[in-house]
Amino acid sequence: MIEHINPADIEKKSFEIIGSLLGDRLLDPEKEPVIKRVIHTTADFDYVDNLVFSEGAVAKGIEALKNGCDIVTDTQMARSGINKTILGRLGGHVHCFMSDPDVAAEAKERGVTRAIVSMERAAKLDKPCIFAVGNAPTALISLWEQMNAGILHPALIIGVPVGFVNVVESKELILSSDADFIVAKGRKGGSNVAAAICNALMYQIMR
Predict the structure, then answer these.
(1) Mean pLDDT for back-to-back runs of 10 residues, the chain (207 residues)
(2) Which of 40, 93, 95, 153 is catalytic?
(3) DSSP characters for 121-157?
(4) What are the extents of the domains in the chain?
(5) Catalytic residue at 153?
(6) Of 92, 21, 104, 28, whose CA–CA distance to 62 is shortest?
(7) Is the entire prediction scored with pTM above 0.85?
(8) Residues paired with residue 131 on neighbouring β-strands, in sequence order
(9) CATH homologous superfamily of domain 46-206?
């Protein structure tokens, strides 16, 4: 039977279903809104186990957003999915340099990916940033290299690229770093997951 639900109540009903399907499984209260938001976005309950959080990552991400930090993404899709209205109210902006012609030109000249050049460009921003990576493992590798060189100090790294080449390895670099992070272990992830995590943090501020 098709259930007719008021459009305004669909999300609420979805989260009720997610809660019922989780059953007796208890989630860390700090991480729960993020995990459930990702499940809501993907319908994939593997994220209960796949999402790994550094100590206090959610609280630190929320604090950074409250202080007006910006968000840098590695895809226009992630940028589109982030709630820019709320971020703007908090004093932040979303950046994605991947489509910039000069980024593409520099990447071609150097023989590297646009994601690498984009992360280098982002390191020059004059305010703290959350990096939300949902597609390009080379973006995570670049972040790791810049952190090791003392060039970059991210407010939070959301490391959830999806795929097969260097995906697991790039995530392991972030997991072994001193950065504050939320990482989806393994091959799963995506731009939608990166955006969902950003939104989950912001919605906790605005609720």
Answers:
(1) 77 93 94 97 97 98 98 97 97 96 96 96 95 97 97 97 96 97 97 98 92
(2) 40
(3) HHTT-SS-EEEEESS-HHHHHHHHHHHHTTS---SEE
(4) 46-206
(5) no
(6) 92
(7) yes
(8) 72, 157
(9) Cobalamin biosynthesis CobH/CbiC, precorrin-8X methylmutase (3.40.50.10230)
